[in-house]
Amino acid sequence: MIAISLSPNTESDDVWVAIKTFCSPWTWKDGKSIGLVENWFRDKFKTDTVYSFNSGRTALYAILKSFTIGTGDEVIVQAFTCVAVPEVVMWAGAKPIYSDIDNSYNIDSSKLEKLITKKTKAVIVQHTFGVPARIKEIGKIAKKYNLVLIEDCAHSLGATVDGKLVGSFGDAAFFSFGRDKVISSVFGGVAVINKIQRSKDLKILKKLKNFYNSLSTPSSFWILQQLLHPILFHLLILPFYNFFELGKVFLVLFQRLKLLSFPIQQCEYAGKMPDGFLTRYPNGLAILAFNQLRKLDRFNRKRVSIARKYGKTIPGAIYVRYPMQLRSRNIIVKIAKKKGIFLGNWYHCVIDPFRCPLAAVGYRYGSCTNAERLAEGIVNLPTHPGMRERDVERVIMLVSSP
Ligand SMILES: Cc1ncc(COP(=O)(O)O)c(C=O)c1O
Prior knowledge:
The chain is α/β, with parallel strands linked by helices. It folds into 2 domains: 27-214, 3-Layer(aba) Sandwich (Aspartate Aminotransferase, domain 2); 295-400, Aspartate Aminotransferase, domain 1 (Alpha-Beta Complex). It has 13 helices and 15 strands. The chain has helices spanning 12-22, 32-45, 56-66, 86-91, 135-144, 199-214, 220-237, 246-256, 283-293, 296-310, 329-338, 369-377, 389-400; strands at 2-3, 50-53, 74-78, 81-82, 95-99, 120-126, 148-152, 160-161, 164-165, 172-176, 189-193, 321-325, 341-342, 351-352, 378-382. The strands form 5 sheets. The chain has a 7-stranded mixed β-sheet, with helices on both faces. The chain has a two-stranded parallel ribbon with strand order 1-13. A hairpin with a 2-residue loop joins strand 8 and strand 9. Helix 1 packs antiparallel against helix 9 (283-293). The protein is globular. Residues 55-57, 81-82, 84-85, 126, 152, 154-155, 176, 178, 189 line the site of pyridoxal-5'-phosphate (PLP).
């Protein structure tokens, strides 16, 4: 079976780390791994200001609050994104304004200036699939209009532009360690603030620190749910996924029993924040993330080598997934499933997932036509580290057969 989104980064050593952590509940909330993860980012991004949270969403919220972005403000985000981005803008009290994308699935910088009004405070630049956006060009526009430039690096840890890491171009950046991101600890994220020079910037730091200090660590039960994810997936769900769909039954059962969590909760589809969502990053998940960070270069090298087999690649991109436009997308996805190949659906809807009512997150259908067109035909090919040569060949055969 080849599955793009079912715990794709987890290797056997990660399962062992999860089992050991599961059996050591005294390490779940506090410990040195939080510092290890944050220091890894401090070192890579050459900044002292790094804070870890339970998710990329909380990291983005922390950034918006620190830069005093809220009620009455507008924040530009791209269409062809996950609801996890615009909903956070709404949580902060601001309004998401959607920009269309170009054919690289990133914000179309030529359309950006037209969206800027007196209310615009920030632009969030998503490096979709780990392919860098035109960050230098967008940086110039942000500077011209005095906008806060926030990089959404949820898909792009390790991607570069002219040898410089994405995440170091903006005023701030956030990363995600969600279950199918570049590295995974099921939930988790980091906020990075760059360029702290002036006294105004010190106020931003103070706000961020105060926000962090106001948060608590997630409950032991929540941490237990996340630690069970790699363990149950690798011992019970994945090995039996295609065996009379037994693995799928296990997955639904464990979710019903609340032993496994959902990545996004129902109320988020309407732009609402789940109760008690904003929390710090617990040590138990930082242990998982640090084990993955040590493998990041190998993971990304493998992703790029697979992407090259699928087609054209862009220098500096890390391809957490490989995007492809297919005319008969839905048919091929169905055929693939029958063959045990689960292709990806980022993003079959301009504001994903499908269940998300677009109006609830302020999107007007027809406003970003290129994003809508690309969402109709997109399929993501898997590039994860567990793929073997013959798996890649099977995927190529599938998408290249008429
Ligand atoms: C592009 C993008 N940005 C931000 C996020 C939010 O990250 P997290 O799930 O860690 O909150 C996600 C994932 O959900 C995403 O795909």
